[in-house]
Specification:
Double Stranded RNA Binding Domain, alpha/beta, single chain, 6 strands, 6-stranded mixed beta sheet
């Protein structure tokens, strides 16, 4: 009985040291072509929603600074620039009460981005149609509704900033 227990323990220990076999796809490691400094250019806002550029650029700055792998610098000092467009925002009701009134909305924002080498304009990474969504509670009070929508937009910006960082780093 002791030998079976020992054998099972050894198998479990051996399996644990091998790992699960799951690996994230992509090249990983460093930023494309060894980029160490970056400027984030204000995004073009093709929507009618105000302040999206400031919200998204701020979220991208926070994410890249938090990660500490690429220095955020001025355009003159940068090896590459992250630039692009906020192409769309949609707000649709996603839940209803028993009388058919919206109780929840879903906001979805789409971006197109490029990572461009400053010295020659070469595109190092392209992310087209990057989408993020968030649900928020509807309110009869216009100010509360706008506040809820604004909070959802900030959450989308934070989520997409992280997603964009990972996409660039993994070259997806």
């Amino acid at each position: 009985m002791k030998s079976i227990t020992l054998l099972i323990s050894i198998i479990i220990l051996f399996s644990a040291t091998l790992g699960c076999g799951y690996h994230v796809m992509g090249k990983g490691g460093e930023f494309p072509e060894g980029i160490t400094s970056l400027v984030i250019i204000p995004l073009e806002n093709k929507t009618k929603e105000p302040n999206l550029t400031a919200i998204f650029v701020s979220a991208l700055h926070r994410e890249f600074i938090f990660r500490r792998e690429v220095e955020i610098v001025t355009e003159k000092k940068a090896q590459a620039s992250l630039q692009g467009t906020i192409t769309s925002i949609s707000i649709r009701s996603s839940a209803y009460d028993h009388e058919g009134r919206a109780t929840e909305y879903r906001v979805t924002i789409t971006l197109d981005l490029l990572l461009v080498r400053q010295e020659n304009g070469a595109i190092l990474w392209r992310g087209d149609g990057i989408k993020g969504s968030w649900d928020y509670k509807a309110s009869n009070d216009v100010m509360v509704n706008e506040g809820n929508k604004n909070s959802a937009i900030h959450k989308i910006a934070a989520d997409l900033a992280e997603k964009i960082y990972i996409m660039i780093k993994e070259r997806f």
